[in-house]
Design brief:
alpha/beta, 2-enoyl-CoA Hydratase, Chain A, domain 1, 8 strands, globular
Length: 311
């Protein structure tokens, strides 16, 4: 059954009315109700607050990396392990085809249900996850395969084992290596982009966000706890942090916003996957027109332009 957020209750009620009308074979009522539903969807989603967008980014039905990989890739094959410690299941890596285009995809995977959430460590990678991602990225470079990275994590895992295996070095190494990687790279925030955990696969020729995704240096809950020691301030923190796709685009911290279906990727997974596919293939076509030197220089200029300010 679909899960509805507090601000979606009117939509929920209309959809229930549609189902009831369909059971009665009242086609006239169905047509009227579908019109009402379209109006309510437009009204509701055109006026979302930053906190409501955060709720959509975390929606339990929102597609995760593997959902998109299954919808996007043909002839897919999963790549495992960092060749040093173990296979971190919070990061998934695949090679396959999108149409006629051979591609590699690296994604952060949260998992559904208690068993899978534990298996995937709630989408919080350990150092070996980032090292696996880098190994696969280097493979993509070797064979000149375009690379798509799907960001969706509350942050890198902060546990003792992760620190012992040098979490910060693994993230920093990825920032360095991905900035110099000589193949076409595109990163897309599909849900949550949490701090360094997101940046570790976020350095690319193009960085985009899905319409209802978020990207922040700290979670709103963490921010409200540190600044105000008051969990009721989460909505205020969300607004202050400027974490929505529109905020980051306005600040010129991302390149593009991908228009996932207005009602949300969790209501139309196929439509959301098609939006990512169209964006990724379009960027491949554009970036292929550049020489390697020009593409790397463009990437360098974009990365070093982050954080500029005027007095």
């Amino acid at each position: 059954m679909a899960t509805y957020l507090d601000f979606e209750q009117k939509i929920c009620q209309i959809q229930e009315d549609i189902i009831a009308a369909e059971i009665r074979y009242d086609h006239h009522a169905v047509d009227i109700l579908k019109g009402d539903l379209e109006k309510e969807v437009t009204k509701t989603y055109a006026n979302l607050s930053p906190y409501q967008e955060l709720q959509l980014a975390r929606h339990q039905d929102r597609p995760y990396a593997i959902d998109y990989i299954n919808l996007l890739l043909d002839k897919k094959y999963e790549l495992h392990g960092d060749r040093h410690f173990r296979d971190d299941l919070a990061i998934v890596c695949y090679i396959g085809y999108i149409g006629e285009e051979r591609v590699m995809i690296i994604g952060e995977q949260k998992g559904r249900g208690t068993k899978n959430k534990l298996k995937r460590n709630f989408g919080m990678p350990n150092p070996e996850g980032y090292r696996k991602a880098l190994r696969v990225a280097k493979m993509a470079e070797k064979f000149k395969i375009p690379l798509l990275m799907l960001i969706d994590t509350p942050g890198a895992y902060p546990g003792l084992g992760a620190e012992e295996r040098n979490q910060s070095e693994a993230i920093a190494r990825n920032l360095l290596e991905l900035s110099n990687l000589n193949t076409i790279t595109v990163s897309v925030v599909i849900g949550e982009g949490g701090s360094g955990g997101a940046l570790a696969i976020g350095v690319a020729d193009k960085l985009a966000m899905m319409r209802y995704s978020v990207f922040s240096v700290i979670s709103p809950e963490g921010c409200s706890a540190i600044l105000w020691n008051d969990p009721s301030k989460v909505e205020a923190a969300t607004k202050a942090l400027k974490i929505t796709s529109a905020d980051l685009k306005e600040l010129d911290l991302i390149d593009d916003i991908i228009d996932e279906p207005l009602i949300g990727a969790h209501r139309d997974k196929v439509g959301a996957a098609e939006a990512i596919k169209s964006y990724f293939l379009g960027q491949i076509g554009t970036l292929r027109k550049l020489s390697d030197a020009d593409r790397l220089e463009q990437r360098y200029n974009r990365l070093t332009g982050v954080g500029r300010y005027s007095e």
